[in-house]
Design a protein that fits this description.
Distance between the termini: 63 Å
Radius of gyration: 27 Å
Number of helices: 3
Structural class: mainly alpha
Order of helices and strands: HHH
Strand content: under 5%
Length: 93
């Protein structure tokens, strides 16, 4: 004895899952398209500046060295405190 209301909801669930899957594929394609367009924009900007390969390499290396560390968030501070407390508790034992 199958309840028609349950069957209707099951069918709706399957239809919704299929749409979600389609949208996930579409989202990944759009994200890739956006990245490709951004990359093209960066390449065009660098080419417009007439930077030599050596200058570009030097610039990239200097930027990598100067890369600032990410700011601490409340969560990372709390995690560090928790780790220190755990470490201190282990030492006291």
């Amino acid at each position: 004895m199958t309840n028609p209301k349950i069957e209707k909801v099951k069918a709706e669930i399957e239809k919704t899952k299929a749409k979600i899957s389609e949208f996930q594929v579409k989202l990944r394609a759009l994200e890739k398209q956006k990245t490709d367009l951004e990359d093209d924009q960066i390449v065009a900007l660098i080419r417009s500046e007439k930077i030599s390969d050596a200058e570009l390499t030097a610039l990239m290396n200097s930027l990598r060295k100067e890369k600032p560390s990410p700011p601490e968030t409340k969560a990372t501070v709390e995690e560090k405190t928790r780790m220190e407390d755990t470490h201190d508790a282990n030492i006291e034992k």
